[in-house]
Amino acid sequence: MQDLIVQKYGGSSVANVERIKRVAGRIIETKKKGKKVVVVVSAMGDTTDDLIDLAQKINEHPPSREMDMLLATGEQVSISLLAIAIQSMGHDVVSLTGAQCGIVTSNVHKRARINEIKTNRIEKELEAGKIVIVAGFQGINENKDITTLGRGGSDTSAVAVAAALEAELCEIYTDVDGVYTADPRIVKTASKIDEISYEEVLEMASTGAKVLHPRSVEMAEKFKVPLVVRSSYNYNEGTIIKEDVIMEKVLVRGVSLDENIAKISIFEVPDQPGIAFKLFSALAKSNIHVDMIVQNVNRTAVNDISFTIDVDELQEAVSVAQKFAFEVNAQKVEYDQGVAKLSVIGTGIVANAEIASKFFEALFELGINIQTISTSEIKISCLIDKERGKEAMVHIHKKFDM
Ligand code: ADP
Ligand code: ASP
Ligand code: MG
Fold first, then answer.
1. From the CB of 185, is ligand 1 less than 6 Å away?
2. pTM confidence score
3. What is the average pLDDT score of the chain?
């Protein structure tokens, strides 16, 4: 759709009445430039965390379906308040839940994927001249149950809406000026990146830089949605994310830290074909995303297998692992939440063996033990003690002179 801009405002940008009014003003400015505007909003401030706490006070492991029902209310509050603010400033506006704007997802609760957006309702409202406010993070499955897309999922809602409507731009408004070489709240010397490729920012997002939901970048790349990350607090330029970034090839673009993971180990698993298949297909069937995998070869006929997962999926992953261990007669299952994954990202990594050695040297200088290493063409990750994660991140950022 011509002249259409999709804007997404994160939780901190709509955390209170004063900020909601400021965001409303900003949306109206865009509208006055002659643009059609669709806005995707997250829940106010820490609402999602507060709702999770509330549920856990009743049941430590609440059912996923009811959690989605509960969490989706957060975004319903913020869309309506934002619409009230825009309306009181004299502009036509309508707020829509995920279901109302036809965001159809898979059946998995708490981490659903968007399958389709039936855009007719949004299009009708835009044609009537209205600003459309869409609830981020939520959709509806084929049973008409409310689903959510995983923490941070409003970014994905925004990109999906932008892709479906063929918007000219998708702007992600947040509480920092753009994508930095490292989390600016941890590494004070981190610098803002002006332009970055989908590929590099996807690795940063997937390794813990929570400024963008990884799925949102995947989708932006697939549908070639031009993305900008910028602050809702100022008018600074932000970071442009697109396919071809013309700039000097930087060896290491950024460093990220994921503290939101856990390691599961299964000891003394029989050393025979089909074992890994059995375990990881069971995890996949439960929609548990597995990251780093190591298998230690023992001298006897058994192995130990370890893997990392998102900490939010720990409970489910442990029960799948325990069932597997029982079936194959493994010795025991253990888990560890005291780990973090530290990664360096950059398209220059594949061609430069020194980058890995410099990374390991930096950890050695701090006396930090590496539990697991994994690499891809543009990334090297190490699993380390969570307590030392931030300190290691600061040191590596300095070591690579980012
Ligand atoms: P929102 O509520 O707007 O979605 P988030 O808290 O999800 O905001 O994401 C923004 C936060 O991401 C920043 O406050 C920052 O601390 C963190 N962050 C982590 N890594 C990076 C990075 N490389 N660049 C920018 N921000 C980052
Ligand atoms: N409100 C949701 C969360 O806190 C979605 C989002 O902020 O993107 O995870
Ligand atoms: Mg976010």
1. yes
2. 0.94
3. 95
